């Protein structure tokens, strides 16, 4: 029997979850996510602000209590006084001027270089799409690109907003635990970047049986749950998306 990749996307939102996480805050208005951010901050062993995200924390939260380990990006958004403040607090400042990759992608390269020396079980990325469809696709593209970084240590990445969560399921067998008060009503499987010629699921209201998923044809959206455990067998990496309820 082939190995099963286990996913527990909602576990960090519960008090019983005590695994160590990396918390990345992308450039976004932080106000809608203050509660989630503060809660996950307490569980993070490595905290990273990406460029203008530092402005948001500086403006809306305690400048002394929420000091990240790293601030990174091309720094086209961070205000000079904000950057200076965190430099004076001995926060590691890593400028990444390369414009061939997004700040998120470059941030993950830095993070994966760090976590070889830190025990972590997952990376949680807080985002706020704010109507920017191009940024959504850029973030999804990063989830695909990280597979080719070449680091030995694999750590699952969950991209979370105040309304939904996305992760990239691996080729093969995946088991997704969704028993949580924070689970919303809907979920989906999105074949981004390639045709998925065969995918089989259990635990959903509308399951797939060796079905092909492809843009322009069938895409599994607006699905919902029949059980608290969803199993997905896929011949290629595929995006798992789910609503959140707070």
From TrEMBL:
GO terms for molecular function: ATP binding; kinase activity; thiamine binding; thiamine diphosphokinase activity. The keyword Repeat does not apply. It is an enzyme of class 2 (transferase). Its EC number is 2.7.6.2. Pathway: Cofactor biosynthesis; thiamine diphosphate biosynthesis; thiamine diphosphate from thiamine: step 1/1. Keywords: ATP-binding, Kinase, Nucleotide-binding, Transferase. SMART domains: TPK_B1_binding. InterPro entries: Thi_PPkinase, Thiamin_pyrophosphokinase_euk, Thiamin_PyroPKinase_B1-bd, TPK_B1-bd_sf, TPK_catalytic, TPK_catalytic_sf. One of its GO terms (biological process) is thiamine metabolic process. Belongs to the thiamine pyrophosphokinase family. PANTHER family: THIAMIN PYROPHOSPHOKINASE, THIAMIN PYROPHOSPHOKINASE 1. This is Thiamine pyrophosphokinase. The gene is LOC115209675.
